[in-house]
Amino acid sequence: MQKLSKDQVIKIMSQYGNDPQQLIAILLDIQEASGNNCVERQWAELASDILKVPLSKIHDVLTFYAMFSEDPRGEYVIEICRSTPCFFNRMTSRENENVSKPGTSNEPIQAKLPGTEQIVQWFEDAAGIKIGETTTDGKVSLFYTNCVGACDIGPVAKIGDEVYGNLTAEKVKTLVKCCRDGNKQELNSLCQS
Fold it and tell me: Rounded to two decimals, what is the model's pTM?
């Protein structure tokens, strides 16, 4: 993993014309270029000096928006939705109708889908870490996030900018394996499915 240099950070800011109105875009680019998925204090201080923005404002931005981190994270940040629709076990609208099919017992048609707690357990087991931790190889970090607007395929997890829904234990294992192996093509094929 290559360490970010002062020249690289200056170049990122200059691409935005050193415009303080572009602070969020600049910080996102610094974070992406960092190699450890965070905006380190030295880069926040440099941005403060060059953009003429108080360091306290930069800190406010970095701590207010969930997409930022001041602490190193894995190459792949997996964020598991914990908003109400994802958190609680979801059932299809037909589950409680208790309609029986010819020749079968009166069992519900659709089984209960897993909620956030089950999804988290699957990710923790697959990655070998707990929520808030990063794997020793620096590939995967697990965090909670709030609603990502994909309730129709929830519970969901977000990896980078992509949303992954209709999660099963096997799909979670595959997602974590793709992250650990750096297999972006297969990861992309599983997106929003």
Answer: 0.76
